[in-house]
Please model this.
Amino acid sequence: MPPLTEQAHVILRRAIRAGDTAIDATAGNGHDTTFLARQVGPTGAVFAFDVQPAALDRTRDRLDAEGLTNVTLLYRDHAEMSEVIPERHHGQVAAVMFNLGYLPGGDAIVTTRGDRTVTAITAALKLLRPQGVLTVIAYVGHAGGLDEAAAVERLLREQKRTEFTVQLPDTASATATSPRLFAVTKQ
Ligand SMILES: C[S@@+](CC[C@H](N)C(=O)[O-])C[C@H]1O[C@@H](n2cnc3c(N)ncnc32)[C@H](O)[C@@H]1O
Model:
């Protein structure tokens, strides 16, 4: 099986068209932001959040290297997503990505946190347009990771089937320590 990041990209590619709006809730090293920026193209818009300046610098470098200018980098907590994303995009967002955990090659003390993640995903689900997709990759190896993954699963299981289709992690091929991919499509 390809890595979960690639699996998430495959799912998202189907939902994103040129000119769309997308959100990277955890910019990190900028791989996902760059992917989204390429998918939406020059007429689209990407908003990318991170709470670490180092992550936003790396993301900026990656975007600059590819000449991508359609991204707004936000030095903000993703739990503030509904206030930070301009109202004209509410209900219009094609894709939201969460790649949880800590910044690879950075400060492993700064990780996403279950309570903020749940607030952010709740906000993100409201921002999606019909047929918009949200993906979450959760890691269980770091402190709090297992609880965070469980909180994400609880939240997504609670969503109304009439409003969202939820794809839960593939437990058949997973071990207790494997990362977990969740994908949600708005009806
Ligand atoms: C696994 S990395 C993301 C990887 C990234 N998507 C990429 O393509 O390289 C997780 C990132 O989440 C960020 N983060 C942690 N808590 C956050 C929060 N409350 N809001 C936004 N970003 C947060 C961390 O600083 C870290 O850079």
About this structure: Helices lie at 4-15, 31-40, 53-65, 81-84, 114-127, 145-158. The longest helix spans residues 114-127. The pocket of S-adenosylmethionine is lined by residues 26, 28-32, 49-52, 55, 77-79, 99, 101-103, 110-112, 116 (CB under 6 Å).
